[in-house]
User: Fold this.
Amino acid sequence: MLNLQEPRRQSRKSILLYVFKNIRGLIGVALYSTFGARALDNWWVVLSLYAIVALLLLVSPLLNYYFFTFHVKADELIIQKGVLNKERKAIPLERIQSVNINQNLIQRLLQIVSVEVETAGSKAKELEIPGLDRSFAESFKNLLQDKAKIKQQQANEEVAITDDEDVSHETPSKPAAANELLTLDIIDLLKVGITQNHLRSGGIALGVTVGFWYNIKDFVEQFYGNVFEGFEWEEIAGYATLSLFVLGVLAFSIFSVLVSMVLVINKYYGYKLQRQGNYLEIEMGLLQRKEIKIPIEKVQILEFHTNPLRRLLNYNTARMFQAQSGSAAITSAEVPACTPAMVTFLQELIFEQPALKDPEQINSFPLSHARLTFYFISIPLLTAVAVAAYYSLYVLSAIALLLYVFLLYKSYRDGAATRILSDDHLVVMQSGWLFHTVRMVPIYKMQAVEKWRSIFLVRRKQIHFNLHTAAGTRGLRYFGENEVIALKNKLNNQVLLSQRYWM
Amino acid sequence: MTNEQLFPVDLPAVEDSFFEKHPKRFLNKKLISRFIYFVPLFIGAVVFTVLVDDMPYKWIAFPVLIVLLGLSLFFAYKEYFVRGYVLRELDITYRHGWIFHYETTVPFNRIQHTEIKDGPIDRLFNLCELEIYTAGGSSSDLNLSGLDPDDAHRLKEFISKKTAAHA
Assistant:
């Protein structure tokens, strides 16, 4: 058993971690100031400035280390930090949702890990202890989780005594035997990588490249002069032939595929999903190793995403969402390469119910989806068609026209695939034609139901539907008014009568 | 004390209930505060026309601003009449918005806490705002602006009592 009564510091190696962090900042400063300081004649001023900055950067890690303490006192985890700005954070143990262990590249070199405590309303980075020894972190994590569990059970029992209705208890924690559910080897990873949404990863990569280029542009121009002198956009338009276009597309797709492979392998390398008692544990990552631990009963929303390529392999990506606060990044855990068997297994595990029993189904109006797209894309795309035709670039014109027709057709099909299924326990929202998405929310975990519409839908008697849970809002559009009213009242009334704890 | 078994199907629909309106002075407050938003813009436009000489059509800012002000007042006016809340035994429903109309129902057993706020213009009109918070982010929080302070306190009291029973 760990002794956490007294405030204690992190592993000594965390000093090095802070040093590394500062060095990263220092490189940026150095780069900018060398180029900026060339104007200055007296170099020793610059040098002494450097010395001061370097000294500060070496001293601050020591101070950071010295003043960062944590301990558990009276059922609260207390984290104290800061040199000038003292901070003291107290987290009641029963509020802890999950405890994650992360390890980035530097931490791996130093053989330390960071422990991140998640609560329903916190920014993740705030409750982080960045430098702990591996074995200590493990037992710390288990200790926190056991204590949190005990507190919660006590709270539940108090509720149960005062309630006269039949409260469905959470089952007491089973013997903690790790139960391996899914591991991905390199072949699986390649499969996942090749079926990524390449368009998106290509786009992201392009964005990063352009952003990086704008950052270093000034330096490059200073040394090499203007690389693009005499480069005009009109010439590009003049060269726009079919072969050039095809070549561009080809280059972009190869580039995108490569990028998504690298991203996937980096993210999911050594992926392992296992069940330990009432928790799901996920380990993954190459450069930045992540260990995520989620209490099963805290999963609010379960989503399955797939795309046309992945459907060929029968793979889904599952996402589990826990309660979050508005400002924090969404706390979700991913399970890539979910086979159909895995999909049903996860459903059963999380919702204690494999499938819907005689579900009621309401369908969206596909034409309304297409109409919305028509309003949004008509002006830009039809203008593009006309402009390209005016400059006799008929190929571009045809491409824009095809894109226009395709987008309209796609939104029609998307609308046709949009529907809400519900029974007495579960709501399932399906949407997407090519990128199929299934979202599942158990009814007792809902916080609010909402219907909304724009004024243009009143005459058509159509309305949108939103579900609010502690893990965020999910909604679908364009349903019949009466159907949504019935659904909203049905769901709300179920929540009213539900006695289960939902968070 | 009765303890009859309840079935979700038997509970009434929200749509059957009567939606409580906000006090009439809330409309006045809305209109006036919208008007106040436009004062700095008008001052800016006046300063612009006085300072800049050599620009044709420099007065164009005025009709544009007047049209915008008119629209803004019109929206605020229309919006007042679709705003309202229903308080039932176990939940609260709020609807608002004219162009985009929302109707949200939050059960008392999902409410975390409530809060009463008022700003200077609110106080001038003897109004205040009741915020109802749920867990996890702001997406399902209700914001009942423009209530009579007495009503707001009564509502808050009622909701807190109901919430405490579920906590």
